[in-house]
Design a protein that fits this description.
184 residues; 7 helices; single chain; mainly alpha
Length: 184
Amino acid sequence: MQAGTAEEVRRSWWVSVLFGLIGIAFGLLTLAKPFQALVAMAWAFGILALADGIASLLALFDKRVAIPKLLLLFYAVASIAFGVIAVSNPKATAGILFFMLSFWLIIAGIFRIVFAIRVRKEIVGEWLIALSGVLAIVLGIAFLRNPAIGLFTTAIWIGAGALAYGVLQVFAGFRFRKHKPVEA
């Protein structure tokens, strides 16, 4: 690491500490109120689904897309429909989020498997795309079987992850504060 870079890291130690404190606060709030956190997550999933749906809709006009147009249109409509519902009413969506999400995951999984098959001769590692499709289908089916447990477990894992991230960021920030450039 160059001396200028080391000095920049040392001077901006507080940014890592701030990110860490925000992560800790988010983690504690999520662990304390997991179902309320799911309302926020419902809204975030809606934004992601809207963006994915719009991108897929725009891809319909690209002649180089390897996915059948009808499947791409179905995927785009499903993503946009989920996104609009989740963003317009996140509280109600949180209650049924995993039913909707599970159907979306199943459709997305099928989409990824078809895509992997269609591009298998053009890219390396297409099996990873197919595997992500299989995992999305399995997750969608698991959510359909027991949505309440899925909701609660997801919120707890996200809260625990944010808490761990926050603590590590705070420790890193204080280490950055004491950082001295390595002598060459």
